[in-house]
Amino acid sequence: MNILIIGGGGVVGQKLAQSLAAEGRLRGRPITRLTLADINDPPLVDASFPVSAARCDIADAQSVAQVITEDTDVIYLLAAIVSAHAEEDFDAGMAINMFGTYHVLERCRALGTTPVLVFTSSIAIYGGDIPDPLGDHSYPNPQTSYGGQKAVGEILINDYSRKGFVDGRAFRLPTISIRPGKPNRAASGFMSSILREPLNGQTAVCPVEPDFLHYYLSPRRCVENLVKAANLDAADLGGNRVMQMPGRTWSISQLIDAMTAVVGDGPAKLIKWEAQPDIKRIVSGWKWDIHAERAEALGLKSDESFEDNVRYYLEDDKPAV
Amino acid sequence: MNILIIGGGGVVGQKLAQSLAAEGRLRGRPITRLTLADINDPPLVDASFPVSAARCDIADAQSVAQVITEDTDVIYLLAAIVSAHAEEDFDAGMAINMFGTYHVLERCRALGTTPVLVFTSSIAIYGGDIPDPLGDHSYPNPQTSYGGQKAVGEILINDYSRKGFVDGRAFRLPTISIRPGKPNRAASGFMSSILREPLNGQTAVCPVEPDFLHYYLSPRRCVENLVKAANLDAADLGGNRVMQMPGRTWSISQLIDAMTAVVGDGPAKLIKWEAQPDIKRIVSGWKWDIHAERAEALGLKSDESFEDNVRYYLEDDKPAV
């Protein structure tokens, strides 16, 4: 198995690479090579098989052609311009999120090798005046350009798969929390930082009310699901290659209570509550009554509790003091 | 009102041009100019205002920039590579249906004039294993590349409208019948030809069973709806600019009985019944339990009876002997 992770330098890409390195196998066969492609050189991971880094700008079809080759068996397409960033810079969002996906699909089509393609869509495709509950077969009504570009990606993945150009599978990721590292430009950034920064002994700002509900998944469980996603047989997916990845809905209060249950009440006191209208405008268009029936039936899983998410952060990601 | 019809040489484009010429007004103001753009020079129509023809290939952004100008008030984007054609020639479908729509939207964005854009989507965006009934807020699950490309267009129309780049409104057209003229490369072509050819005294082939159900609209009523579509206020459309255009569901038998009711039983005897697996494979993925609640609430209409569709053909389109 020759595996390519596009967006291999990101939080999920790096954790996925570590997981593949630990596992050594995918789709029932040994991994023979792993390439981490990103706009900058991504950090490598230790593995029993060769791991290399590649610079790739998916907005550029030529650059895509250099990293997807005839012997690429599995492609993870994780690279994206995230929500608030794509809202500010419309061209960047279109170039990466829509045309980037198109370039990857076209490269696969040109090769004629029908690689497995795992695409990360987002719950940002839901929104507006659509009745709850939401899930695999809900009308995509995104309220951001990021969500719109991901919705386009879903449609293209399905059509290129139907035509046999790729063996695609697309999953709408819940918001990943607790996301380690620096904040990115996602409007959802606070949903990690209000926990991560206090757990690291720093203050954080919460821009929404304590009863704000949202749909979450831990990075650890997300990566487990992405590995399962590649392992699925095309026959199990049927004609629609797009589905919701399992997550769970919690309020901000529940996140904070879970943190307090695991580490005591000190960190919660480091959260400052300050309304941020720009962020609230974006995230209030997002949906939380979301269900992942198809993916759950295929063996993908949500977290058991948000206490688990806190523990995963402490075990996997908390920087040494 | 300076109006541009892209696809102005097509059946619907020509009838729309005739209707606008007869009406002389749109969006409450006199029409000052009408441009019919198409890949070939479209026939002109007589009007009290200037009417001109323009060659335009929407696959080419430069060509689009030549026909959409600062003083364009209303754009009808009707041009498309139809279903069976896009299924055979994937590149042509992507170039016209997806990139053509993108080029029109990008040109509007570059101008900064927020023109009204009426886009014709299709019931081909529905399909597969999605529960009936279908309508405005159903999950798009197209079973053809044509349907996929139209579904992408819908998402882009919504996002470009949300951003204020265009004042878009997109309508999923029912199958237009009785469509005059020569057959095109739509898989739905027989749904007109089994009536049109016999009404013209010629034989025709029906490739499906008499109980095959489908969702139809006459060309005359379609054009009336497209005029209303441009006249709608943006405020009435809300955040989702995409909706089903009203049609009605009839079986093949009902179409033929309607023809017989209007003109007697001679023409029905000119229909030959011959299964065509390629056509049947495409059209059996199409849906017919379709409802157009939003558009009906906004005043758009379906036909009263299929007898009307037959009469409209005789009045508007039947070639003189």
UniProtKB/TrEMBL annotation, chains A, B:
The keyword NADP applies. GO terms for molecular function: oxidoreductase activity. Keywords: Carbohydrate metabolism, NADP. The keyword Nucleus does not apply. SUPFAM superfamilies: NAD(P)-binding Rossmann-fold domains. It comes from the Bacteria. InterPro entries: DenD (IPR050005), Epimerase_deHydtase (IPR001509), NAD(P)-bd_dom_sf (IPR036291). Residues 3-202 form the NAD-dependent epimerase/dehydratase domain. Pfam families: Epimerase. Signal peptide: none annotated. This is NAD-dependent epimerase/dehydratase family protein. It comes from Meridianimarinicoccus aquatilis.
